[in-house]
Amino acid sequence: VLADGRVLNNLNKLKKDNTGYDLKNLFIGAEGTLGIITAAVLRLVPRPRSVETAFAGVPSPEEALALLNIAIERTGGEVTSFEIMTRAGIELVLQFGASVRDPLATPHPWYVLIELSSQQRDGLREAMEQILAHGFEHELVLDAAIADSLEQGKAFWRLRELFSEVQRHAGGSIKEDISVPVAAVPAFIREANDAVAKLIPGARPLPFGHLGDGNIHYNVSQPIDADKAEFLKRWGEVNEVVFAVVKRYGGSVSAEHGVGVLKRDLLPSVKDPVALDLMRGLKRLLDPKGILNPGKVL
Amino acid sequence: VLADGRVLNNLNKLKKDNTGYDLKNLFIGAEGTLGIITAAVLRLVPRPRSVETAFAGVPSPEEALALLNIAIERTGGEVTSFEIMTRAGIELVLQFGASVRDPLATPHPWYVLIELSSQQRDGLREAMEQILAHGFEHELVLDAAIADSLEQGKAFWRLRELFSEVQRHAGGSIKEDISVPVAAVPAFIREANDAVAKLIPGARPLPFGHLGDGNIHYNVSQPIDADKAEFLKRWGEVNEVVFAVVKRYGGSVSAEHGVGVLKRDLLPSVKDPVALDLMRGLKRLLDPKGILNPGKVL
Asked: How far apart are CA A187 and CA A196, in angstroms?
């Protein structure tokens, strides 16, 4: 529904349509500032026949990335998740999370959670084993467990899903949702850690997230025994040093969470000025009276 | 490059970026009427490790569709081509194409060309055999050949690739590039054939194309011994009856070839008026002087 009340009917089930401009993607991700989406066509895909989940300890993000590339090379689109987590966060999960345990016998500096999904009946377990075997052989993987049941797979996922929530037990936490090219993730984490350590000595970076998407939730917990409120006041300064690294790698300061109010005033410092101007033009065109989700995004 | 000479730098390598409106897709498919694309970032994917190609005779588009669904269910994203062709067109290919032969011993009313591609080393041949075996068992497939070599696979593709070109040997040909939801392709072909037969008795529909995309090149050759020029004069009338069927199934009158000049004046009759109005607004916003590819699309 457009700002003037007219309804743009974009409900079609076509895979190909080249009769004009791509209007659909203009509204997706615009956070309701260009129009209100009231209906959608969904495509159903067959449920995967088999899913394999592994939890592996790795030396560093570099090795995690190398392992991701092996997994993609060997199984292509069957890599449906590839998550990275730092040990310090897993320790919080193990300490404060309910019903969790470390699937591996000893601690490791970093972890990855790998999920493969396939329409095919057979061979997925073997593919996961081969990826990990290659990882062991080339010192990309230190230890690994493959889930033997759906239940165990869910237990691996719990470690990942609790990662953000348990950070409240470590005091104040400054949270970022950044993306960089997948190949730049290890360098980003290293350089952001350095920048944060220099800015706030003792602050504890707890990066985790979707390595396969180049999307890292770069969270920073306060130094032990620091004042929470004082630490959180420095959110803008942390933004500044982290976003400088993001910018160096051509990244985004909001990979999946959007702009809203929180990041609206940041846009001029991170966005191409021509892009921002074009966004303002689109907003004027589609919502001249500024009545759609006012104050958000722009 | 925008109409006012400014450069919108949209060159990034990110899989996720939610810092504002999706500007990229506004320019893709706009045929240069909103700006000029001068650079692009390409993502490379590993070359498939194995490819299997099959050529099969089927009773009708209904069975071709059922076979496509089986192939998707069994191999998911590994179905990289699923093309449909009518016998009358294959006859022209066999008669006028250079270095071609029918891979099957007897003629069949319709054909499909199936290509599976995989990153995985093994099992793809077996998957193709199982799809075809299922097809035989359920009377979806009348006869089939699986390419035993890259060479033979290319020979199968030649039959498909010559399909359009050889139609000049059948006299004048009115060509359409439509799409409908994949599930509606058989009904579309049947109803369009009926409509064309009623309009121009003896005209020969030669539909073929990308069944997996719901995109049919619905070409119609003149009746045997008809006057070519007189036949081609009726292009608009053929459009009208074929597009009525397309519209009934929520389809597009230009699946992949775009609008340009040829289909510009058709848009008001097939496009949602609000969509068309929004397209005009975007054109005014981005190219107020009308200097970008003038006269095209709008």
From this structure: 14
